[in-house]
Batch of 2 targets.
Target 1
Amino acid sequence: MTDRGPDRRSVLRAGAAITIAGFSVSVVSGCGAGKNNAGTQAAATVNDLSDQAKQAIAAAITSGKVAVGKPAFLADAQVIVTEPTRGQYRVFSNICTHQAARVDQVNAKGNLVCSLHGSEFDPATGEAKVGPAGKPLPSKVATVSGNQVTIS
Ligand code: FES
């Protein structure tokens, strides 16, 4: 058998691999993938709270750092604690479901705001009120009983 270089099948396989690799790169850096990754990241922050994060949340609630209309942005814990109505607390991921920037502000309407593209989220439900984000911020409920704060 003589060495004639790569046959047609080998070239096609190589081309397919290059196409797939190029597609993967564009998907990872594309806006659509950012949405998917952002949602997954956001959910992880509230579904897998560390003991340190739980303590920070409890401290924010019991110290009065969070109040009606005054959310507490706990950057180290990657969460926001709100008190939508007196005595009822919510814990939200601070990772924007659009492209994973930080939701780190509250506006005059009381909505939680991502400063990167301006998405606004309801402080009671996490619902995206103003886009570009379309998905809500994942959340948990924090309940206070005496000195005990339970996050569920
Ligand atoms: S990352 Fe785009 S609005 Fe938050």
Target 2
Amino acid sequence: MCSCAKVTFYEVEFKLEGLKVIPTHKNCGNTLNDDQFTSFEKELVKYWGLDAK
Ligand SMILES: [Zn+2]
């Protein structure tokens, strides 16, 4: 698992593992941990504008 201090939206890519899509940090090649994934999801929602109220 990735243990980088900061993972930005643009450093994440998705890899297919069987039927699952795994978010992966490009810089180190490891999968995101739960905390990183949570903050990444928030960035993703902002990026897509899904948090507009
Ligand atoms: Zn990393």
